[in-house]
């Protein structure tokens, strides 16, 4: 159970990121649309969890673990978006990196302060 909650939280926050992005661009919040937007980033999050789990000797609540998840989420997400023909404009990469940093690292900082 120690790894389940952080993994679910990371994926949930990536889906929230996608929903916020769709809402801010008036694309609608239908479930399939949100999942389609989130899918490349969720794949990146899964890759980040795999890389961090195999290379780091820390738990998923640690900032270093979150940093690996973050980098993979953004890099893999943007590469997959590019492959499927979705936008990867520099401004989007900056906004996505900023928002995902706040989300994926933010909850870890809060958890650390609470503990």
Automatic annotation (TrEMBL):
It holds the Pfam family DUF3054. InterPro entries: DUF3054. Keywords: Membrane, Transmembrane, Transmembrane helix. The chain crosses the membrane at residues 36-56, 63-84, 90-110. This is DUF3054 domain-containing protein. It comes from Ornithinibacter aureus. The lineage of its organism: Bacteria, Bacillati, Actinomycetota, Actinomycetes, Micrococcales.
